[in-house]
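Entry 12.
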Amino acid sequence: MRFVFRNFPLRAIHPNAEVAAETAEFAAARGKFWDMHDLIFENQNSLSEQMLGELAHRSRLIRQALRDALGSGTFAERVQEDFSSGVRSGVKRYSNIFYQ
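Predicted 3D structure (tokens):
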């Protein structure tokens, strides 16, 4: 069995979903995807670019490198590809889902 994670950011539910997904991909490129994934999940109610920088720092990643990657859109295409793949696989976009 193989577990595959795909980003599926829902902006209508969380305005920082895409930047959080890009942050997770930034961490993945440095071998720390699951660490960052867990931190993002644990802090989902207070996410902002500043908070994501703090989470990067807590994961021993360089904040400025994250800012540079987000500013240049280094991982934006990857996140969009994951989203499109999810849509093609039948994942639905619901605007009335609430998360706690």
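Annotation: The first helix runs from residue 17 to 28. The chain has five helices and no strands.
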